[in-house]
Amino acid sequence: MKKFVFNRQVDVLGRIVLPIELRHNLGIEAKDTVKLIPVENGILIVPSKQN
Question: What's the chain's Rg over C-alpha atoms?
Fold first, then answer.
């Protein structure tokens, strides 16, 4: 996967938008669930495919 750096602003409800390029590369589609995992220097976002 290509390395990208995206800067996104958090809205007043605490939301961010994952760029389409990132969603396509990770296979994330509308209504999919992702895991947000706190790590030492940030947040790890991992696709979580639920059956």
Answer: 12
Segments making up each domain of the chain, as ranges: 1-51
pLDDT in tens, 8-51: 999 999 999 999 988 998 899 999 999 999 999 999 999 887 65
Six token digits for residue 25: 């590369």
| C-alpha distance from residue 41 to each of 3, 8, 30, 38, 44 (Å) | 18, 17, 28, 8, 9
What are the tokens at 15? 């939301």
* CATH architecture for segment(s) 1-51: Ribbon (2.10)
